[in-house]
Amino acid sequence: MIKAGILGSTGYAGAELVRLLLGHKDVEIVWYGSKSYVDQAFAGIYGNFFRIAENICKGEDMDALAEEADVIFTATPQGYCASLMNESVLSKVKVIDLSADFRLKDVSVYEQWYKIMHPTPQYIGEAVYGLCELFREDIRGCRLLANPGCYTTCSILATYPLVKAGLIDPSTIIIDAKSGTSGAGRGAKVGNLFCEVNENIKAYGVASHRHTPEIEEQLTKAAGAPVVINFTPHLVPMQRGILVTAYASLCPGVTAEDVANAYHAQYEGEFFIRLLGEGKCPETRWVEGSNFTDIGWVIDPRTNRVIMMSALDNLVKGAAGQAVQNMNIMFGLDEAEGLRALPMFP
């Protein structure tokens, strides 16, 4: 059995990790880490785990956890995982970080967008960006993995194949994204109160959202040249889900068949990517609670643009599910183990 520890287990993404790992036949959770609920029963915080996970929450001592676990998941705020990282830990366990601490390869970009100093930039170079369907071979042997963000996973999966194939002009990419409120975490914030969110939709982080450079960095790899995009997220009154609608101009002579072929060439055989095809629009309700990403597209001949659409559950494929998928790859397990749950509806 793989022994797993979770730091930040009482946040939404951490609790989702608990839910998924408890259903994983090859994993035992040995540490429920929490900064706010030390010595409290995990099931007392999340009642859905009553009589299932009666463990007591411990603190967030990564060095002590490294002595007990084979893999550590850190579902913690930006800067926290990086502040605990050291060679002693990495020599003993694999670390899967759900924050942005090791996603961006340029430390100055990280510090500019996240407004904090990076405490351990020496580990940025070796960290692998864990978007499973794109970088599986790099993930296999790594010891430090940067789990992608929810908006970025949805945005990159939708746009990457056409950028890589050279079918769209990357300088014209505009990404419009909408997320449920769980994406903002469990912390008490006025903007996330029921009366603030219900019967309302709003844009936020316009031209300044922290996931922008993460998307740009990965699309730059695909294009082989710098890519700069417009990314605008929106908050919608639902608990889970992300829907991305991205727009770009097609390169001269590109056909509908070219677009379809690019998607199928990139994702053929990928269990967790469901290509709906041209003219089919993804919906968040059809991926809720699952690790699937649904992708569809529409070509507009009037404007010579392609509209690329994708939907996923921000807490599963956008966070905890992808982290478990990465763990499976890192340990040589069946990639879908613990993640085969079907989307739930209603």
Any overview of this molecule?
- It is a single chain.
- α1 (12-22) links the parallel β1 (2-7) and β2 (27-33).
- Helices cover 30% and strands 20% of the residues.
- The longest helix has 15 residues, at 150-164.
- The chain contains twelve helices and 13 strands.
- A seven-stranded mixed beta sheet has the order 8-9-7-10-13-12-11.
- By secondary structure, it is α/β, with parallel strands linked by helices.
- The mean pLDDT is 97.
- α1 (12-22) packs across α12, α7 (132-140) runs parallel beside α12 (316-330) and α8 runs parallel beside α10 (212-223).
- The chain folds into two domains: 2-126, 3-Layer(aba) Sandwich (Rossmann fold), CATH 3.40.50.720; 151-314, Dihydrodipicolinate Reductase, domain 2 (2-Layer Sandwich).
The spatial strand order of the largest sheet comes to 8-9-7-10-13-12-11
Q: Superfamily at the CATH H level of the largest domain? A: Dihydrodipicolinate Reductase, domain 2
Find the CATH topology of the largest domain: Dihydrodipicolinate Reductase, domain 2
Order of helices and strands: EHEHHEHHEHEHEHEHEHEEHEEEH
Please indicate the percent range of residues in DSSP E strands (runs of 2 or more). Answer: 15-25%
Tally the helices. Answer: 12
CATH class membership of the largest domain: Alpha Beta
Mean pLDDT rating: 97
List the domain count as a whole number. Answer: 2
Rg over alpha carbons: 20 Å
Tell me the number of strands: 13
| Overall geometric form | globular
